[in-house]
Design goal:
Two copies of one chain form a homodimer. With 108 residues, chain A is of the alpha+beta class. The first copy, chain A, has five helices and three strands. Chain A has helices at residues 18-29, 33-45, 50-56, 61-73, 92-105; strands at residues 48-49, 77-82, 85-90. The longest helix of chain A has 14 residues, at 92-105. The first copy, chain A, is elongated and about 45 Å long. The two termini of chain A are 26 Å apart. At the A-B interface, helix 1, helix 2, strand 1, helix 3 and helix 5 of A face helix 1, helix 2, strand 1, helix 3 and helix 5 of B. Chain A binds a DNA duplex (30 and 30 nucleotides) through residues 32, 49-51, 54, 59-63, 65-70, 83-86.
DNA sequence: TTTTTTTATCGTATATTTGCGATATGTAAA
DNA sequence: TTTACATATCGCAAATATACGATAAAAAAA
């Protein structure tokens, strides 16, 4: 090791810390252009229906639905049933949490 | 669509814009705790050898080498041959580019 | 020259992701 | 009730990611 202070940034028991896993998890949620676009979209629109995304994304409805599910499971968006449609919006708490993790990571 | 100005954030030809793909690509590079740790590590140490990472990451040397390769291919780190060892450091240009993309994404 | 050290790559197994069409579900409209 | 609509889920195929042990490569040390 080129310097000897690695214990302050690595867990000595060789497991990953919570915030490291959390950041990786959010990064994974952002790791596809369609999901980036969905989040951009929601940040400009307050809320959107599934069909809105299907209109503009270059993939089938079922695939869009799957990407929405992943973002939901990552906690970044919230679904609202408005039968027969479903609207989505940003989960602001999770969004701020993710923002903070990325800010810290990039030392902003 | 809940508002009608989506053309300013979506490419009408239904393909993803360069910066969307670029951000997704960087996010993918960060989408594993080991790679997060490697980058944290390099940001605290100027440079490190492969073996330094192997010491502290909970995985085999070959796996660590694979993660380093991915970060290198994403452009975020640079390898320096110092036989028989190889040292790595942050690619500052790419790092700043990634930082900017994430900042813009999070509207910072 | 032989051995050791350090790292990358190969081969392989398993898991996850991505994508699609088809289908199911649940509601509203006819 | 039947039909139409919006969305989620299923089943499947292909691609990619993750991880490991074994091996290769290349230089330094003995």
């Amino acid at each position: 090791m080129s310097n000897k202070d690695y214990k302050k940034c690595f867990n000595p028991n060789k497991n990953f810390r919570g915030h490291t896993k959390e950041l990786a998890r959010y990064a994974k949620a952002l790791a596809h252009p369609a999901r980036i676009k969905i989040l951009n979209f929601l940040n400009n629109s307050k809320y959107c229906y599934t069909g809105d995304f299907v209109e503009v994304l270059p993939m089938a409805q079922s695939t869009v639905s799957q990407h929405l599910k992943e973002l939901k499971e990552a906690g970044l968006i919230i679904a609202n049933e408005q039968p027969p449609r479903v609207s989505y919006c940003i989960n602001k708490d999770a969004w701020e949490k993710a923002k903070k993790l990325f800010m810290d990571f990039f030392d902003v």
